[in-house]
Amino acid sequence: MNINHYRGAMDRIVPDAELKERIMKQTEQNHARVPARRVLAGALAAVLTAACLATAAFAASPELRTAVLSFFRMEEHEQVPSGSVSPEGPNISNAEIGQLVKAQYIKMDKYYGMSGSLLNDLTWSEDHRTLLDYKFWTVENNELVPVQVDMHTNQIDTAYDGIRYQGELYWFVREGQLFLFQGSPHGIDTRPEDEWYVEQIPGRTDAILLKLAQGRQMDYSEYPVLYHLGTGEVADILSGSGADQLEYAYAWDWSEDMRRVFITCGNGINGQHTWLCDLDSKTLTRLEELAGLEEEASANFIDNDTLILTTHTTSEEDDTWQTVTCYAYDISSGQKIKTLDQAHYYQWWEEKPYGAQLFGKRCVYITETGQVQIVDLKTGVQTTVEGFTFQKGDEFSISPSGNKLLYFSMDPEMEGLGIAQLGVVDLEKGAFIAFDREGYQNLHEEGIGWDDDNTVSISARTPDGKTRYLLLYQF
């Protein structure tokens, strides 16, 4: 295996020139340091195998266009930082892993939150209802630079179904993005008027959804209204649709244009019902009736007019999902296409977990041998990840846009997450890059997730709890 073989394989499989160039630079530098036979031998062999398999699949079945995605494990390992925070306050350092991933490590003396790219420190009243003080910083040249934000305070005061909802909402807009802050007065003394929540509307900074809650546990329900931040005006955008007559409605999934919404209603121990509410026609339709399904289904929007419908079978012993079937459904035409058929549903606690993990319009399907396939549930196209074998403790998480998957592998011997490997599957570029981590044993890692479509963060602390870390990765 030499660099020319690698170039040929990458030209056939990975369409994105920018990512190829970054991988090529690392490959060429490694090639100068180690014998040629060792340069990315495993990863490149997988790439060539993928090319052959893809060609064979296309030739054998031209109407079924399966794709191949290449896995690239970086030779360089990440060295996870550790140690106590300096007396001067937060400390920031940077690293570059394999010339493909940029890492930033923020070491702190207490917990700081994130608001987009800003670090924040919020001080709440003892009852956690009132924001007393707030500070924001941005990172420049490895230093925290204070940032002044135009914080607004709105007094929530509205009534619904005999309950008056009150409280304070805090918000600001920066670089076209809305940031919301609300106290969380949870506890035995929580009053009905405290049970309101907010949800952002994608693309809007002038209004939000204010969700008014009632009841507890199986009697819980909530009702959304449109709340205008500038004026405090409340609008019942569901008026006349009949949605306010549904019992135990607890989940609302909106289309992008907010002209349709799926409403999930609890049905006691008998499960749940899902309705499609059309705000233009002021109609409510049971999902099963809409799609012509005999079994109970759930759904989510792919675009304003397209749904992914999911049905499942359950175990008689514990009522857990056993298999899932998915359809792409066009609301206007009524056309329904099956894109996943009775696939075993993934259960992480199994001895050798396998099966389907559903992420919106994406499905990660893990075979019993650990091979990974990514299924586009709208088109049915399957993408095979070559050169990678899924193991127990591995996890995937979808990015906000749905075009990337976060991959991480957890060390079962650790009390925290113990993330031993980290990577990202870029579904648009057709590449999966990952790296091993060293030194994670010195931290108690508490959480991991997407900050935006390009940034992953890990929150951690030292074992004594005196120093906190925020580890940021840009892929």
Topology:
Blueprint (H helix, E strand, L loop, with lengths): L2 H11 L3 H17 L7 H20 L6 E7 L4 E2 L11 E7 L3 E8 L4 E3 L2 E7 L6 E10 L2 E4 L5 E9 L2 E12 L2 E6 L13 E5 L6 E8 L6 E8 L5 E2 L13 E6 L5 E7 L5 E7 L4 E4 H5 L5 E7 L2 E9 L6 E10 L5 E9 L10 E5 L2 E5 L5 E5 L5 E5 L7 E5 L5 E7 L8 E8 L4 E8 L5 E7 L4 E7 L6 E7 L1
Parallel strand pairs: 1-27, 1-31, 2-31
Antiparallel strand pairs: 3-4, 4-34, 5-6, 6-7, 7-8, 9-10, 10-11, 12-13, 13-14, 14-15, 16-17, 17-18, 18-19, 20-21, 21-22, 22-23, 24-25, 25-26, 26-27, 28-29, 29-30, 30-31, 32-33, 33-34
Helix pairs in contact: 1-3
What this model shows, in words?
- This protein has 4 helices and 34 strands.
- Strands 1, 2, 24, 25, 26, 27, 28, 29, 30 and 31 form a 10-stranded mixed beta sheet that branches. It has a 5-stranded antiparallel beta sheet with strand order 3-4-34-33-32, with no helix packed on it.
- It is globular, with a radius of gyration of 25 Å.
- It is mainly beta and 475 residues long.
- It has helices at 3-13, 17-33, 41-60, 287-291; strands at 67-73, 78-79, 91-97, 101-108, 113-115, 118-124, 131-140, 143-146, 152-160, 163-174, 177-182, 196-200, 207-214, 221-228, 234-235, 249-254, 260-266, 272-278, 283-286, 297-303, 306-314, 321-330, 336-344, 355-359, 362-366, 372-376, 382-386, 394-398, 404-410, 419-426, 431-438, 444-450, 455-461, 468-474.
- Helix 1 packs across helix 3 (41-60).
